[in-house]
Amino acid sequence: MNENQEKTTHFGYKTVAETEKASMVADVFHSVAAKYDVMNDLMSFGIHRLWKRQTIASSGVRKGHHVLDLAGGTGDLTAKFSQLVGDTGQVVLGDINSSMLKVGREKLHNLGLVSNIDYVQMNAEALPFPDNSFDLITIAFGLRNVTDKDKALRSMYRILKPGGRLLVLEFSKPEHEVLSKAYDFYSFNLLPKMGELVANDSESYKYLAESIRMHPDQDTLKSMMEDAGFEQTTYQNLTGGIVALHRGFKY
Amino acid sequence: MLTNFIVALVERILNTSLKLDSTLIDKLEPVSHKRLLIDIRDWQQQFLLVFTEQHLHLYSTNEKQFDCMISGDIDTLIALKNPAMLTQLIRQDKLDLQGDLNIAQGFSNAFSAMDIDWPEHFSRYLGDAPAQQLWQIMQNAKRQGLVTDKKVAATLTQLCQDELKVTIHPLELDQFKQQTRQLKGQVAQLEQRINQLLQLH
User: Fold this and answer.
1) Which of A86, A123, A138, B155 has the highest count of CB atoms within 10 angstroms of its CB?
2) Is B106 in the same domain as B173?
3) Which domain holds residue B88?
4) Is the interface score ipTM higher than 0.85?
5) Which of B82, B112, B142 is the last residue of a domain?
6) Beta strands in chain A (DSSP E)
7) How many folded domains does chain B comprise?
8) Are the Cβ atoms of A60 and B63 closer than 8 angstroms?
């Protein structure tokens, strides 16, 4: 085998070198960061707020907990967690992308949430925290952009405290054929056009649609979490499986 | 998702009430960061209520982690608006309470003592005198509405129960509910028994 032959991965429907994916994903999010929240509301008709509410409802988070909101972007989950963990807890908003972190920090500061939030630029595959550090890790709409998902899941497992839980909120496979077709039409025809009109960037939203299709389905992701060491792994389909919330524990 | 949407709306209303009655935040302070799980039996739904400094958080959840859990039918839980009913409802087995009783009482006391000064809030937009007048009109309309509502309800009940005979009496419904609960218990016992017998053989 040629030693120089590079390992490849998916970037939407394209096949790219593993070493290139992170920077390509970074470019996408640098491009959309400023309009990220507006586009989220527009593209999901505001339903992303309900998906995130379900994540918080399933988190079991309470006062004093240490929470890592991975790929936390503009800080929707962090804002709620910050209130729920109180002054004795701590929330780390982590993202690989500096532009997203900047938007998130500004938004949370404007909400008056400053005392218990740290902002860390980090790669999910090599989380810069000691073993057994967090009671809860969430990654919402971020895992599909990670190059080596198995490595990222193992890294999350390492830094979770025993008894802690991981919540993965991510686009998934619709349960019904009719919904799936309507969703495909929406994703590949309307979504890039909306991206072009609002954020002046159709390519990033084309990548979004493609990356969703390349992401593992519900059962595959569940198996991946189990392989990484998580126990009592379950998932809950939201909006007919367009999004799934996976949950796993470390004991 | 529909439940989540409705719960989000209710949470928004609760948080608006916190802004309208500033004393509510002080009244809720003793239950700050305590998790109250409300199990509405006849809806088969559980809701988690948490107060944190300035916000109320309400979620529909299956989580079993709580500091206090109250479980009962919706009618029973509505009766809790009067905090004095708490002990009576527990004795009547209509209400199941686990964990720290003070948390349920804390939330109940705070909301039952809620007193929003509506004329004061209206006066910001209308001025003092029109706001007071509007408030009096609204109070009169509410009184009239309640009287009319009672009359219509009584007439409709009589019509449906006695004349048309399309509905049953509330006592019959209570009896039916009780019998259903008994049957559920008996079926559970039978299931347990069958499982034991299956294990033996």
Assistant:
1) A138
2) no
3) 2-112
4) no
5) B112
6) 8-11, 14-17, 66-70, 90-95, 117-121, 134-140, 160-171, 231-238, 243-249
7) 2
8) yes
